[in-house]
Amino acid sequence: MNPLNPVEFRRQGHMVIDFLADYYENIEKYPVRSHVKPGYLFQSSPDCAPMYPEPIEAILKDVQKDIIPGITHWQSPNFFAYFASSANTASFLGEMLLNGFNVVGFNWASSPAATELEILVMEWLLKLLQLPQSFSTSSDHGGGVLLGTTCEAFVCTLLAAKEKTLDQIGRENTEKLAVYCSDQTHFSFQKSAKIIGIKPENVRQVVTNRTTNFELSPESLDEMIKRDLEDGLIPIYLCATVGTTSTTAVDPLGSLCEVASKYNMWVHVDAAYAGSACICPEFRHFLDGVEGASSFSFNAHKWLLPNLACCCLWVKDKSSFTKPLSTTSELIANKTTESGKVVDYKDWQISLARRFQALKLWMVLRSYGTIALREYIRKHVKMAKDFEGLVNMDSRFEIMAPRYFSMVCFRVSPYAISQHHDNDHEANEFNQMLLELVNATGRVYMTHSVVGGVYVIRFAVGATLTEDRHVKMAWELVQGQATSLLGTPTPNSASNVQSSKQIEGSIST
Ligand code: PLP
């Protein structure tokens, strides 16, 4: 056996590229959400690994036959669920290169290019996002790192905040530490706090509401902290979000940082989805106030084209951040580390080993360039705006939260379901049924959320291949299914058809 025979590598590699190119060409033929039943794969697969080698031809045949039916097609242009995970040529090729080199760049010496390219791309991104200089590696105290996910960014920054406080006030106070977020903060924050040993009841959630667009209120936060202090808790950390998962709400960073600074708390800004949009000057204002934060992260893999997983994190105080994560051993001791002149990224993350992620980000930034990346974001935002316009023109539907980026939250209104009363419970059941019917067609995939007790359908544009025609088809599908569920013709149908045509005209131009 020679697992790295260059001749076979070339032949099989070309076959896989051809396979994927065919997949992308034909992706619209597949039902977007997989329809398989749990355990489906075990029925068609042998129950132990083969004793002898199998040819790539046979393996790819089984990928087509057994794996593809079990795939929910995140790269389909009709994928409007969750937030997208964008695939593209540059990042794919970057992944090939980094897999090919397969270095384990835990410190500078283990692969200098991996560390230096990471610092370089994080500086490029810092400038694109106009983040404060205090986050820059070239500043005295700041720096950026590539992690896998936001959950890791939460864990590492929470740990830094916890350790910094305990160093000052003593470990016997661990049980009193409290961290703050809103009821719209991503649920992985709870898990991260649990991992670092914060008591579940000390993860304090400020309740939001629809009238204030589900934003975290600085006044409510301040009141909650004051009450908690009276109860003996010690506030250490606030997570603010730019672009919440349910509705893309944007928390007021400036005022929140002011409140947090009164209590000497660490503020982390989670812009997992919406951060990418902020490379466009017209969206940058959503990050105003980030200069008061201790750390900032966004998932470039959601919307800026690097493939999963690629979370970019910057911190202002690298010494507090790396102190609890630092490890050392004679096994990896080397002169450059001892010189103190280099970054050893093993001290910026949970694990020791790390991938050469910067390569794919570098490939994306170079292959497309800033102008095209901004246009890519704008195109998605425009498609979401068009969809919102279509929803607004059908009086049976209502928009449930302001649309800032490329996600629209909507539902069939309670009045369209029952003209006599405003019954959210009934509307929730109806919209749930509507979404299930829409997704069961296999032609699109959307997901939902529940905010303030209300079930909303989320229409999130973000797949690389999505075009105007897919958005229009998705809307017509939603409208058609709603009409058959309501059992009544589309109200104001004449004006709706006319307006829909106008939008269609504007979409196609
Ligand atoms: N924060 C926000 C705002 C998100 O939308 C998400 C996921 O969609 C996350 C955090 C969790 O990200 P990850 O899976 O990278 O931990």
How would you sum up this structure, described in words?
This protein is an alpha/beta fold and 509 residues long. 44% of the residues lie in helices and 12% in strands. It is built from 17 helices and 12 strands. The strands form 2 sheets. A 7-stranded mixed sheet has the order 2-8-7-6-5-3-4, sandwiched between helices. A 5-stranded mixed sheet has the order 1-11-12-10-9. A hairpin with a 7-residue loop joins β9 and β10. α4 packs antiparallel against α13 and α13 packs across α16. The chain starts with 5 loop residues before the first helix and ends with a helix. Pyridoxal-5'-phosphate binds next to α6.
Features:
509 residues; globular; binds pyridoxal-5'-phosphate; 5-stranded mixed β-sheet; single chain; 7-stranded mixed β-sheet; 17 helices; alpha/beta
Summarize the structure.
The chain has 17 helices and 12 strands.
Arithmetic mean pLDDT = 94
Ligand inventory reads: pyridoxal-5'-phosphate
The oligomeric state is single chain
Q: Count of DSSP helices?
A: 17
- β-strand number: 12
* Element-by-element helix/strand order: HHHEHHEHEHEHEHEEHEHHHEEHHEEHH
Instruction: Summarize the biggest pleated sheet.
Output: 7 strands, mixed
Q: Summarize the amount of helix as a percent range.
A: 40-55%
Strand line-up of the largest beta sheet: 2-8-7-6-5-3-4
Strand content: 5-15%
What class would the helix/strand composition place it in? alpha/beta
Spatial extent as radius of gyration: 25 Å
Question: In terms of topology, how is this protein built?
Answer:
Elements: H1 6-26, H2 40-44, H3 56-67, E1 79-80, H4 89-101, H5 112-128, E2 143-147, H6 150-169, E3 177-182, H7 188-195, E4 203-206, H8 218-230, E5 234-241, H9 253-262, E6 266-270, E7 295-299, H10 300-303, E8 311-315, H11 318-322, H12 335-339, H13 358-393, E9 397-399, E10 407-412, H14 414-417, H15 424-440, E11 445-451, E12 454-460, H16 468-486, H17 493-508
Parallel strand pairs: 1-11, 3-4, 3-5, 5-6, 6-7
Antiparallel strand pairs: 2-8, 7-8, 9-10, 10-12, 11-12
Bound molecules: pyridoxal-5'-phosphate.
Pyridoxal-5'-phosphate (PLP) binds at residues 83, 149-151, 186, 188, 241, 243-245, 270, 272-273, 299, 311.
